[in-house]
Amino acid sequence: MSDFHQNGIITDFHNLTRRPVEALEEALVEFSQRRPMSLILPSLYSELEGPALAHIVNEIAQVPYLSEVVIGLDRADREQFLHARDFFSRLPQRHRILWNDGPRLRALDDELEAQGLSPREPGKGRNVWFCAGFVQASGRGEVVGLHDCDILTYDRGLLARLFYPVAHPYFNYEFCKGYYPRIAEGKLNGRVSRLMVTPLLRALKKIYGPLPYLEYLDSFRYALSGEFSMRAEVLDGIRIPADWGLEIGVLSEVHRNYSTKRLCQVDLADAYDHKHQPVSEEDATAGLNRMSLDIAKALYRKLATQGVTFSAEGFRTLKATYYRLALDLIEAYDHDAVMNGLSLDRHNEERAVELFAANLLEAGSAFLDNPGERPFIPSWNRVRAAIPDLPQRMHAAVEADNQGDV
């Protein structure tokens, strides 16, 4: 048995890693008879050539309980898509690749755009959104999991721990978020989570009060993790951002739609490492620079729907409050690193905080200057209302791409 504790907001399954993966998988095979499971893998073509994805696919090939694997493939031409079909062919499970840049899915995207329903910018959110539509049209999974394709320390136990709380037939969880320590190569990682999201949430609570939404977000050990599982029906009604605000957006939507008693988080691994984004201080469209802007805007939009009123003066106060809290946390992280024999570059930590602080103002200005912005991709409920047969035609297009000539 794993031990768990209740943190007052959501159930936290901690140290589930103590249970052997073989025991988890044996249970999940039994669970799959009641709740079939599908896995979504949002991927760039470049990740097929990286150091992580081949190992991930080899691990998934050994998973005995999956009904379906759905791969969202971005930035791939025809020859690259054909290579992807061969690359993923080692999976014994039923698997389908969404060639998002292919002519069939592009034609459907044009229909969506004509109705004002298409995701407005490329990115992980758009990729996940199309995969979610396909999973619903396929109808093969009652529980859907998702994780990134750049995890260098991946093993199939991570997937089993992610699925277990939602797939268990006697549990009533609708959504599960994964977490893990961000430590690799003797370094303390996870800068955006540690140095931006945590102090920002606490600054917002200090200024606007302990709102239930802020308390909820702050209860997640790693709100920016790209690993989560959910009941398939959760995908119907959520509206997610197309940009780097995806993870915050998903957490916000499940908070809006479900009781916190139906949500949980789970400890996935003792170690986790993936591709690290550069800070990109000189380029606001890339790296942690872009990520921090998108996350801040996602939080501001959600708080506005909760009745919080923002102003230019308020954003300046927020920046100052955040900056002080973030600097205090750097001190604590430095001590934590020393105690655990890890390295931490305080100079670069403070430079990152300075960038994030400036971006809180930049995101605030963008929020105030463009109140009519439509930041979220419409839900699939709305798509079916506008174009009832589009999910079925998308399913047929994906089948044609995977089974026939392209």
UniProtKB/TrEMBL annotation:
Keywords: Transferase. InterPro entries: Nucleotide-diphossugar_trans. One of its GO terms (molecular function) is transferase activity. It comes from the Bacteria. This is Glycosyl transferase. It comes from Vreelandella vilamensis.
